[in-house]
Structures are given as structure tokens and as C-alpha cells.
Amino acid sequence: IFSPNSGNKEITWMMLEAGAETDVVNSVGRTAAQMAAFVGQHDCVTVINNFFPRERLDYYTKPQGLDKEPKLPVKLAGPLHKIITTTNMHPVKIVMLVKENPLLAEVEALQKCYRVLDLICEKCMKQKDMNEVLAMKMHYISCIFQKCITFLKEREDKLDGFIKSLLKGREKDGFPVYQEKLIRECIRKFPYCEATLLQQLVRSIAPVEI
């Protein structure tokens, strides 16, 4: 366990990369993220909650069981890990990260990536220490990747068209309706209906009209 109370998110990140455990509790039964939240170091909480060890992704770059090919080509592991660990979950930011990497911005590459994200999501929900937040994040990025594929296949302006759709506001007040509908659709498609996080999100969003 480590102490993120200093509020230095770079040091927190370095300690996580060096193998610091995030689920160990201290003498009063709190994890590192809970202690950071308790003293108001919310940047450190964000870093801890968004941390995903590269080794966990590299697992999919090696053939498993009867597979002849790995589920994720080695060349895609770095770009995908960058997106997984980003703390900015705005859909435009995620699409921009895809667009700026030629290895990722292809239909076949995105198909492989979203399938791996779905597997990680499933693992997060089925492991002993269930991680609903990470599962939802993986599912959300997977949904955006799938929408990227649709635009790459069907639209001449490709990912630029997707970004424009996400940013376009309706005439009367500039509200980005397409973006709102996409985020709601991602939440609705989360496959684990019993998840507490999903139920909280639905309760918060359902009564709010677009």
C-alpha cells in the first residue's frame, strides 16, 4: 500500500507502475483511493481509479489456450493502453486519440481492440473483487470504438464526421444531442444489469429529458 495524501499525481502514477497495491487497506480499513478522497486529493483518486497495468493488457498479445493467434496484435497494445488509462472520458477526446494513431484508426484494428475491452469488462465483473467502475469504463470505450467503426465504414468523412456529430449542437440552445444519446446508449448496453453502478447511473439519467 502507498500513501497518496501528498497530492502528487505523478508520484502516485510512478508508484502504481512500480507495482504498488491499490486494494490493500491500512490500519483503519481504508484503501489508498479512499484515503486520498478523505483528505481531498481527488486528482490522486482519479489516477488510482484509472490505473490499468500494462501487463494485464499484454496478456492478450500472446495466444491463449487453443488460440493460434493472439487476440490483440502487439503493435496495438501501446495505443490501446494509452486510451484505457486516460482520465478524460469525453467521447471526442477518445475519438481524437484513435484518429491521431494510424495503427488504431482502421476497422480491423478497432474490432480487435473492442473485443479485448469486452473481455476485460467481463473479467472485472466476474473476478472476486468486482470492479464495476473499470468494467463500465472498458464497456464505454468499447462502445465508442464500435461507433468509430460505423463511421469508418459508412461515412466519407470518417472519424472527422464522428467528431462533428458529437460536437454539433441543436439550433435552439447548442446542446449536443447526438453526444448525449451516444452516452446514454453506452450505459443502456452495459451487459451486467445487476451492477450497482449501472442502477445508480440509470436512476440519475432516466428522469432527465434531453
UniProtKB/TrEMBL annotation:
It comes from the Eukaryota. This is ANKY2 protein.
